[in-house]
Write a structure and sequence with these properties.
6-stranded mixed β-sheet; globular; 28% strand; Hsp33 domain; Heat_shock_Hsp33; CBS domain Like; single chain; 319 residues
């Protein structure tokens, strides 16, 4: 744990989570930045810009939410609605492997966005959640393996933006006060996204002399300072994350913890696909065949294609 001081020049922290704490305010936080990882994930799909931008926000939101939890397994964020973007899925392993994808009805999307201007920086329309996702729900799942109980939280997609929906989740499901800010930009070549999350520390971890009113005052100050962060600051590759935190909270004793790297990594494999195909009757695989008669399975996350001739399917049945 290191106290952030003026004059330091740490790395910009792209593709990482930086946990921090505001000593004087009784608040802990997470700062997430995604850069090349975002480009790698989005480049595998020919998403329209607004869909890519919303998925970029979902990826940095998922990373932020997962980083506030202690788990050994997989955190999944799922957004499902009745709009042109039917589904978005993001997951992050406890080792930092991040992936995500979207399912889009291109014709409906074109109709919805016809004559709707996009923000010059983010490439998102106004009110992106109701426009793109429509009515539906946001679900958070933590899966720590077959011998443990899965945790899941589900809330309605209630808000104009993903940040609004996350705040709705915090209000409905969390016992501790929380605040969050998201930002995304496309500069014509590359995507960048960032998030800041604050959580009030439990009363037991705060200074004993503080009464409830004083704790609330300090929390309100933290939220106001969070709100003062601009998208340009959050996304500036020349401004280290520590520098941003110092700029926002220099009066409040910012302490940074060990940075947690994030990487682009899908968990699909030939062995995993083999196991899935063994559970499907041979007659039901015909709709997956290409013109050459091979069964084709494509990973929705990374677009890797797995091909199976009849001899390969025979081998699965006898394995």
């Amino acid at each position: 744990m290191n106290t952030v001081r003026p004059g330091s020049a740490p790395a910009t922290g792209s593709n990482s989570v930086l946990p921090f704490q505001l000593e004087a305010l009784g608040v802990r936080g997470r700062a997430v930045r995604l850069g090349p990882v975002l480009d790698a994930i989005l480049s595998r799909h020919a998403y329209p810009e607004p869909v890519a931008a919303l998925l970029a926000e979902a990826l940095v939101l998922g990373a932020a939410l997962a980083s506030t939890l202690k788990y050994d397994g997989i955190f999944t964020l799922q957004l499902r609605g009745d709009g042109p973007v039917r589904l978005m899925v993001v997951d992050l392993t406890s080792e930092g492997a991040l992936r995500g994808y979207a399912q889009v009805d291109a014709a409906r999307l074109e109709a919805v966005l016809r004559d709707v201007p996009l923000d010059a920086a983010s490439r998102l329309p106004a009110n992106p959640v109701p426009r793109l996702l429509g009515a539906g729900h946001m679900a958070f799942t933590v899966d720590q393996g077959p011998q443990t109980e899965r945790y899941q939280g589900v809330v309605a997609l209630d808000g104009a933006t993903l940040a609004d929906c996350a705040h709705h989740y915090f209000r409905q499901s969390e016992q501790l006060a929380a605040g969050l800010k998201l930002a995304v930009v496309h500069d014509g070549r590359h995507w960048r996204a960032a998030s800041l999350v604050l959580q009030a520390l439990p009363s037991a971890q705060l200074i004993a002399e503080l009464d409830a009113e004083e704790r609330e005052d300090r929390w309100r100050k933290a939220v106001v300072l969070l709100g003062s962060a601009t998208a340009a600051e959050m996304l500036d590759p020349a401004l280290p994350v520590e520098g941003l935190l110092l700029r926002l909270f220099h009066e409040d004793g910012v302490r940074a913890f060990d940075r947690r790297p994030l990487r682009d990594q899908c968990r699909c494999s030939r062995e995993r696909i083999d196991r899935v195909l063994r559970t499907i009757r041979r007659s039901e695989l015909d709709e997956l065949r290409d013109a050459g008669g091979r069964v084709i399975v494509t990973c929705e996350f990374c677009s890797t294609t797995y091909r199976y001739a009849d001899a390969d399917l025979d081998a699965l049945e006898t394995a």
